[in-house]
Amino acid sequence: MKKLITGISKIAAIFAIAAIVVSCNKEQPKTAGTATGTTANNSEPVVYVNSDSLLTNYEYFKAVQVTFQEKSKKAQADLTAKGAAFQREVAAYQQNAGSLSADQRASTEERLARKQQELATYNQNAGNALSNEEAVENEKLYNKVSDFLKVHAKAKGYKIVLTYSKSNPAVLYADQSLDITKEVVAGLNAEYKKDKK
């Protein structure tokens, strides 16, 4: 469960990074000037987004991350409570085992083994449920970023939008004048605020 909890934000970040690579094939007329909140020139056909900054500043991603942390904490607390109850049963059995008959001990041990298996199954099911929900949210995140970038790139005349991340550097160097992260974050956050209303 702990691996799942710590992996949630890593998986979401990796998925979001993959979502940012978008290519637009239709040629658009280019306009002069600089993009809002950044130094990227609209005449540049290839630009990039810093996915680390995008994820740090995208309100939708932050909200999803908080939701998953709360759900993970709740699932962990529930599992801890069930595990503690099971440990109390085992301790009670061990304390009273000497006064039980062989049949009673065998029956109790069988029941405790079933409970232990049920607890392991519950843990696995809870982890799977979180993973499935995370996959749905990652798909939404992918679609939001991808859909926004398709429209944004077309409007700005960008032919390719690449991604940059320190943790997974697919782009080793890019001139900062090609960085459109601020305008993308501003646009995504504006859409998110509009969707929340």
UniProtKB/TrEMBL annotation:
PANTHER family: CHAPERONE PROTEIN SKP (PTHR35089:SF1)
Ranges that cross the membrane: none
Coiled-coil ranges from the UniProt annotation: 105-132
Signal peptide: 1-18
Keywords annotated in UniProt: Coiled coil, Signal
Species, as recorded: Daejeonella rubra
GO cellular component, one term: cytosol
SUPFAM superfamilies according to UniProt: OmpH-like
Keyword Transit peptide recorded: no
Protein name: Outer membrane protein
Organism classification: Bacteria, Pseudomonadati, Bacteroidota, Sphingobacteriia, Sphingobacteriales
Family from the record: Belongs to the Skp family.
Any one Gene Ontology BP term: protein stabilization
A molecular function GO annotation: unfolded protein binding
